[in-house]
Amino acid sequence: MTVRIFVPIDSSALAVGAEAVARAIANEASMRGADVAIIRNGSRGMVWLEPLVEVETPEGRVGYGRVSARDVPALFEAGFLQGGEHAARVGKVDDLDWMHAQQRLTFARCGVIDPLSLSHYRAHGGYEGLTRALAMTSSAVVEEVVASGLRGRGGAGFPTGIKWRTVAAAQSDRKYIVCNADEGDSGTFADRMLMEGDPFTLIEGMTIAGIATGATKGFVYIRSEYPHAFRTMRRAIEIARAGGWLGADVAGSGCAFDMEARLGAGAYICGEETSLLESLEGRRGQVRAKPPLPAIHGLFGKPTAINNVLSLASVPWIMAHGAPAYAAFGMGRSRGTQPFQIAGNVKRGGLVELAFGVTIRQLVEDFGGGTASGRKLRAVQVGGPLGAYFPDALLDTPLDYEAMLAVKGMLGHGGLVAFDDSVDLAKQARFAMQFCAIESCGKCTPCRIGSTRGVEVIDKIIAGVAPEQNTTLLHDLCETMTDGSLCALGGLTPMPVLSALTHFPQDFERPAGARHAAE
Amino acid sequence: MTMQGQELSDSFDEGRAVRIIAGLAHLEGAMLPILHALQEAFGCIDPRVVPLLADALNVSRAEVHGVISFYHDFRDAPAGRHVLKICRAESCQSMGVEHLVERLRMAHRLEPGQTSGNGALTIENVYCLGQCALSPAALLDDEPIGRLDETRLDALVLELTGARA
Ligand SMILES: Cc1cc2nc3c(=O)[nH]c(=O)nc-3n(C[C@H](O)[C@H](O)[C@H](O)COP(=O)(O)O)c2cc1C
Ligand code: SF4
Ligand code: FES
After folding, report:
1. Of A131 and A515, which is predicted with more confidence?
2. Phi, psi at residue A344, to the nearest 5°?
3. Contacts of A362 (CB under 8 A, 6+ apart)
4. Cβ(A145) to ligand 2 under 6 A?
5. What pLDDT shows up at residue A511?
6. What's the CATH fold of domain A330-420?
7. Which CATH class for the A3-100 domain?
8. CA-closest candidate to residue A257, choices A299, A205, A335, A301
9. In this predicted structure, what is the pLDDT of residue B1?
10. Which fold has domain A425-518?
């Protein structure tokens, strides 16, 4: 009987040698005359175990972690085709604590199936959401998404269904669905993993969005730093079209919806929705003033629903299982699940999908296993480069939109970056300003000039030059940026800076060199 | 997508540029797809494409120029035969990427934004590659590299530049 072996094709797995592993397994199998089928799946999100090879056995899929091409002959010797014992064996993957403790709705299929196989997709519940949506009126679909409580996963947390209502109500000869796959935040990779591991979920979500709002054309705008995700999305779109799931008559429903994948060109600001629309239209990615809202006056001036990858990819589950089932997860006004991303200085980095309300500490310490360096954990930055740095005392804060705001932070796209005690928060604050200066679209002065001034002022503080006056100046500068910026790049850069100043003042008090020498 | 590492034609070919532009001009918002295709074909955005693009897309030359200069991806001169993009963002900082950059400087005399003397390798900064659970991360041409360390970096530079560390 053919043994099915899964070797991930997710770019994280490729980044640590999965391609060579797949080749070595194919070679070894043919040398031994073993009957195997190698399936290239996405990642399970246990990135620390990549390349994670899985062998299908009668008891379930057995995993072998951190496999290198050199290990392959020994794995065959150990009888891994029957799930045999070996140092790399981690056991049945579905039973691992890391997987077991999660609530995988959006990522249920990711890492399980061949990302480009429509038959795998359908066998695992794919297109059930769309099928149900097609049997409903478009306004009922919108109301289902409203009732689920789904809020935008791109950072701002705006209710997705409400946005769709506006687009649905707008009168126009043409409307668009735009998927924001610019994922520029450090510490985040969920959009990428989903596009590489289960792209049809995003296609299905966008198709449902199109049917709900009356939009017939979709674009996925993918950052150019993600060449693999771009290729996978492009192929998946072709496959869906060939399968009749995209085009003039979606699944024989008479509804039209088609889409294209587009590549960004290396600009963080193009993740901001109006800048992204400018970029799609072929212009400089400069932020537009709102109003008008993109929902009314969006791409090419037409009503446009612009949503993050995860917002759109949550919709098929919601439509298949119903709004109440989704809304049953979560806390307060944050309903459903969030794919959290654990990154930075942790032993076990990866993606964990859980209901809102899990704490920072549970993710970084329980799932993440503490620091990779073995040193003391000192700070966790939540929500990307515009998010706050939290000290140990705040790590028990639950991750939900409102709870994060209450501690002067934000959830952003759900990324957590851990730092050990070698971190210098004054340097991190400086980097936040520098990043803003590099990525500013240049439209408003507080952001464009303020960020450069911010770097200079922090340099002075670090150097011990008139630290008190300069710290006051830095606070003033942050206030100007917060109040006077057109978008959240300039407006939120003060967040990491002020969190560093508030929670780690000692890092600003003495020059870094002197502090480390004294410790 | 920039396909560094593949063969670059060093001479600009206007006929070919015109054909590339004509082949994509029908797209909605054709500017970026065309610029990516031109860079893939010629290794950079030659200034001679500006009037061609302006004509094809019915916009001013100033606007075309503005777009090209806005995006970090578009180069005005070809890169080295290989491009190593090193992630300098927070997650990779937390895992010591700055030491690797220092290593490039001290041991290999390579600096982000520069190309090795023999034109073999360009080093660039990038801010997050979505490989933050494998920091420090890099992208060599289009291939991701995770858990980059000094040994691996030295070997890569040696292999790609043919130089001794
Ligand atoms: C500087 C900046 C960068 C942003 N980057 C992203 C991004 O990479 N991906 C994303 O989905 N949203 C990003 N956003 C948020 C978008 O502007 C917008 O709120 C989002 O695409 C809406 O989709 P959602 O409601 O589904 O979250 C960014 C916003 C700002 C101000
Ligand atoms: S805050 Fe910065 S990025 Fe945002 S519009 Fe102003 S200049 Fe552009
Ligand atoms: S921060 Fe370096 S890969 Fe994300």
Report:
1. A131
2. 85, -140
3. none
4. no
5. 57
6. Ubiquitin-like (UB roll) (3.10.20)
7. alpha beta
8. A205
9. 41
10. de novo design (two linked rop proteins) (1.20.1440)
Contact list in B for residue A342 (CB cut-off 8 A) is: 133
A418 to chain B, any CB pair closer than 8 A? The answer is: yes
Domain boundaries, chain A: 3-100, 118-327, 330-420, 425-518
- The amino acid at A466: A
Kindly state the average pLDDT of the residues A57-71.
97
Distance from CA of B30 to the nearest CA of A (A): 6
Q: What is the mean pLDDT of residues B15-25?
A: 97
* Tokens matching residue A184: 């520029």
Closest CA to A333 of A257, A388, A261, A406: A406
Q: What is the pLDDT of residue B165?
A: 43
Which tokens in the block code for residue A49? 């175990």
Bridge partners of A307? A179
Q: Which of residues 355-374 of A touch B (CB under 8 A)?
A: 372
Q: Is the dihedral of CA B2, A230, B51, A270 positive or negative?
A: negative
Q: Is the pLDDT of residue B11 over 80?
A: no
ipTM of the complex: 0.95
Q: Is A232 on the interface with B (CB under 8 A)?
A: no
Residue B132: which of A189, A267, A300 has the nearest Cβ?
A189
What distance lies between CA A68 and its chain's CA centroid?
27
pLDDT at A519: 45
Give the pLDDT mean for A414-436. Answer: 98
User: Are A401 and A235 in contact, with CB atoms under 8 Å apart?
Assistant: no
pLDDT in tens, B99-148: 999 999 999 999 999 999 899 999 999 999 999 999 999 999 999 999 99
pLDDT reading at B7 higher than 50? no
DSSP code, position B44: S
Distance of CA A168 to CAs A161, A163, A190, A214, A216, Å?
10, 9, 28, 6, 12
Structure tokens at A10: 């997710």
Rounded to the nearest angstrom, the distance between the alpha carbon of B86 and the centre of ligand 3 is 9
Longest dimension (CA), chain B: 51
Give me ligand 1 centre to Cα A22, in Å.
36
Contact A435, A385 (CB under 8 A): yes
Q: What are phi and psi of A220, to 5 degrees?
A: -105, 120
- The per-residue pLDDT for A290 is 87
The set of long-range contacts for A118-124, using a CB threshold of 8 Å and a minimum separation of 24, is A118/A200, A118/A239, A118/A240, A118/A243, A118/A245, A121/A198, A121/A200, A121/A201
CATH 3.40.50.11540 given to domain A118-327: yes
What's the burial of A473, exposed, middle or buried (CB within 10 Å: 0-12/13-18/19+)?
A: middle
Residues A354-375: b if buried by 16+ CB within 10 A, e if exposed: bbbbbbbbbbbbbbbebbbbee
Per residue in A451-479, pLDDT (tens digit) is: 999 999 999 999 999 999 999 999 999 99
Contact A431 B129 (CB under 8 A): no
A384: left (phi over 0), alpha (psi -120 to 50) or beta: left
DSSP label at residue B43? S
Could you tell me which residues are beta bridge partners of residue B144?
B139
CA distance A288 to A285: 9
Chain B: nearest CA to A111, how far in angstroms?
A: 16
